[in-house]
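Exam review. A common question shows you a sequence with its structure tokens and asks you to describe the fold in words. Practice with the pair below. Do the first one on your own.
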Amino acid sequence: MRVIAGQARGLRLAAPRGRQVRPTSDRVRESLFNILGARVPGADVLDLFAGSGSVGVEALSRGARAAVFVELDPHAVAAIRRNLAHTGQAAAGEVRLQHSLVAVRQLGRQGRRFSVIFMDPPYGRNWPRLTLKVIAGSRILAPGGVAVVEHGRREVPPQQVEDLQLTRQNNYGDTTLSFYEAGDRGGEDL
């Protein structure tokens, strides 16, 4: 696993040991960032169920302003911190050792907003729907932002969760990326 592009291009990333973490493959990450394109430079990024932090580190390498990494496994958190230090991105990364849903609620109460939210929850469970519901309720997705869910290809993601609409899907082998954007929020100025 390596950083694909940007200032840290080619640097290898550490992955925590064990089967609890399933890092996003280089191929899927490259496709993700090709799709996100101009949304990344200057963005505030939230990497939920972060694992090794490869998505958030990639975003920072490509010019994101800041990234918050949320992970419950202490070994994965240590790997994220190593990866941030190794790529020279430690100052732009905030690492939280906590459950993703708890973090989303706290970030919402703090008034934090993110242009790009990425989540890679455990496959085969209802985590995407539940996490999207908490994201929508917390209003942490900035206007014009995108929330991306990595999930198993056989999982059927919801078309809509509150005001978050499924706008795009891309398949990569057994992995699917589903993209959500906020619909009309009744003229609210967030």
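Now try the second one, then compare your answer with the model answer below.
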Amino acid sequence: MSLLLAQLQNNLDRVEEQIARACERAGRPRESVQLLAVTKYVPTSAIGALQQLGIRHCGESRPQQLLQRAVQFPGLRWDLIGQLQRNKVRHVLPFVRLIHSVDSLRLLERIDQVANELKLRPRVLLEVNVSGEESKQGFTPTQLHEQWPQLTELAHVEISGGMTMAPAVASETAIRDVFRGLRELCDELQQRSPQLQLTELSMGMSGDFELAIEEGATLVRLGSVLFEGCDVEE
């Protein structure tokens, strides 16, 4: 086994233990949480190594890089976790399993339009700025409630839940409040629209994913914690 594979395996084993312990603390089965490997800053050699170790789901922040890597690694399933501009929607839709970052009604309307033209039905998550930070993208909880009727009338997209990010520098209580806020918001919206399946909560990154799992995350977006100690910077 190469040094890269060995280090990645060690990191994956450690992360797996952390996920399993967080699930146990929350009284949840391990299979209720999916690890999404974020490959934004790593070369293709590291992605190939992840694939050898059994990783099947990866996330990219940049649409152009996602397209390139989806072609290079057709055996992997790719999620877009970064900002999507409306003029990139047509290029991205055929290659993504899930879009985590739908941050406006205008963007969702564009996705719906292109999906209709391409005969696709993409799954999306609505990005919510639960913390209220000006630097973050996304719907405010109030905007999401107000625009919910328009969001849910679009026929060619499948809204599957929400995504959020906690403040980078915050107390554990503040981080939990953000994650819990998204979960409770999705629960409220689910009650308003029982025909939908708002089952996915994309929240938690390398520094806070255990807290996110304890607060209900179903998808954790992990990058640096997977590649720690690996010489993989592009």
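Model answer, second protein: The chain has a mean pLDDT of 95. The chain has one domain: 3-227. Full marks require stating both points clearly.
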